[in-house]
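It is worth pausing here to work through a concrete case rather than discussing structure prediction in the abstract. The textbook approach is simple: state the sequence, then state the predicted structure, then interpret. We follow exactly that order.
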Amino acid sequence: MKPVAMLIAAAIGVLLAGCEREARRLETPPKPALKPAAFSSPIHVGPPVVAAEVTKAGPADAPDKPPEENAYAVSQGKRLYRWYNCNGCHSAGGGGMGPALMDDQWVYGAEPAQIVATIVQGRPKGMPSFAGRIPEDQLWQIAAYVRSMSGLVRGDVAPGRNDGLTTGKAEQSRKPREAPRSTSPSREP
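Step two, the predicted structure:
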């Protein structure tokens, strides 16, 4: 009986030695934080920022491989979303003091560069500017997670479970949403 067990163990060892796991990069290289001086004003007042304007006055360098194509980066964005207390105003994406992030209405744009510009520049009526406070790679991870909340990233990249005490569905199991539509901010005198 002992030689059979040794033979089986040797066969399993050979099979496992032939398997290679994919190489995963678990940490992104740190980049310097965006400086507030790179923007015309710390809080954007006026019409919504469009992607062409972001490249002129905002986060100039989008990552080579967008974080929304990397499951680890999106899950890090989820962690950072809670860590920077975004859920204090936006809740788990359903809104609260801040707008909902799980619907198809995007006042300042749904593209990653537009979301990063919103985080960095802030917005009138409550969204503070995080310029110089969040490293650039983390800004892109948060933007990728925000897009996952409304179903704008692939299902295999979106976080698969909720680690908190929330009762909402995981981003991966949410139905795909309609295409985002831009709405202009209300102008009050």
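Step three, interpretation. Residues 36-58 have pLDDT under 50 and may be disordered. The radius of gyration is 21 Å.
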